[in-house]
TrEMBL record:
It holds the Pfam family HTH_6. It comes from Coprococcus aceti. Residues 1-43 form the HTH rpiR-type domain. SUPFAM superfamilies: Homeodomain-like (SSF46689). InterPro entries: Homeodomain-like_sf, HTH_RpiR, RpiR-like, WH-like_DNA-bd_sf. This is HTH rpiR-type domain-containing protein.
Length: 94
């Protein structure tokens, strides 16, 4: 997305997106995109999630789905920068 596309999707101005990036101590929107991409790459490097589902082994397939979802949640929580999240929440309150 461009800064304009993100602003439109969020219902704010491009300037608000830029100010938000500065408020969470990023250099700008481009830096936000790079940081998010880096986080996604790092999360993928943690391990492999299987997508194998078999009609012949429904119980095993369901256990696999559950395991994959739990791993996705673990990765999501692990990659959250607590200090940045705190700043985002503080910025959202003001």
């Amino acid at each position: 997305m461009t800064v304009g596309e993100l602003a439109k999707e969020c219902g704010v101005s491009e300037a608000s997106v830029s100010r938000f990036c500065k408020r969470i101590e990023l250099k700008g929107f481009h830096h936000l995109k790079i940081s998010l991409a880096r986080e996604l790459v790092d999360a993928k490097d943690d391990g492999e999630i299987s997508g194998h589902i078999s009609v012949d082994d429904m119980e095993g397939s369901l256990r696999g789905i559950l395991s994959n979802k739990m791993e996705e949640l673990r990765r999501t929580v692990a990659m959250i920068d607590r200090e940045k999240l705190k700043k985002i929440l503080e910025a959202a309150k003001s």
